[in-house]
Amino acid sequence: MGSHFVHFNRRDIRLRFPRDPQDPWFSELQGDSSGFGRPQFHVTRAVNGTAKEVQPGDTIWLVGQLYSPWGEALPATLDARIDVEAVGPRDGGPGYRYAAAASSRWFPLTNSTASLRALNCVSSSQQVAPLWKHPMHPVGRYLQRIRKLASDEPLREWEVEIESRPLHFISYRIRDGSRAALVCAKRLIGEGARVFWDRWSLPRRLAERREAVGDRPLDETIETSIHQAALVWGIESPLYGVAGSYAARERALAMSLNKYRPVPWDR
User: Fold this and answer.
1) What is the pTM of this model?
2) Cα gap 170→222, rounded to integer Å
3) 225-229 LR contacts (CB < 8 Å, sep 24+)
4) What is the pLDDT of residues 219-237, one digit of tens each?
5) Where are the beta strands (DSSP E) in 16-160?
6) Is 42:235 a contact under the CB 8 Å cutoff?
7) What is the maximum span of the chain, computed from C-alpha positions, in angstroms?
8) Could you tell me the pLDDT band of residue 17, with boundaries at 50, 70 and 90?
């Protein structure tokens, strides 16, 4: 049984995408379907400390938090579990690249606060202390570097709990429905749901940088998630459902499955 680590992965809702989508910190040449089914890798700029302790067979739990340009943030949640298959140098600069094994996975959008507050970390001097010492501070403050966990049992238990909850799919148009979709996501996770929202649930290179990806893996991911969802919430903004848009296709499929629920749009 390997060691367990935890790291923070800030996520952002972007209305304008970077001029240079090939930012070397985020980018790595990948196939069209890479990152849809599971994580491919995780990277860090750190060269010392806990980062160099990670070995093949270990696990890195990624904690994420989604921030918006409107001053709102969703609760901290699990982003991914990286079961480390190999460790190597990071391309383009100092640091490490942790290749993810096939058993690695993404997590849907949830509120994982209680499980994160139950975690304890081990220091370099082998002292055990709570990870999230002051809950009034963002958890990312304590995870700017990779930390070693005394036990990942609270996260393993939460992973099982997540799977028992129904999935809710948010359908919307980016151009005029993003903020309303955020409000909908916040409501659903506040009610304990697990949520598929493309700002969180698609590969980061697409969700946050709008890099080109293959149409087929994107279509398959969307359609599979709608089939798996208990309900599909459609943000009915003025541009929602325009012929030929992804939103129109999502709504049509959801209605055919009797899963569609309209969400009135408010400017």
Assistant:
1) 0.88
2) 11
3) 225/167, 225/169, 225/196, 225/201, 226/169, 226/250, 226/253, 226/254, 226/257, 226/259, 227/257, 228/167, 229/166, 229/167, 229/168, 229/169, 229/196, 229/254, 229/259
4) 888 999 999 999 999 999 9
5) 41-44, 59-67, 77-89, 96-100, 105-106, 120-122, 128-130, 147-149
6) no
7) 61
8) low
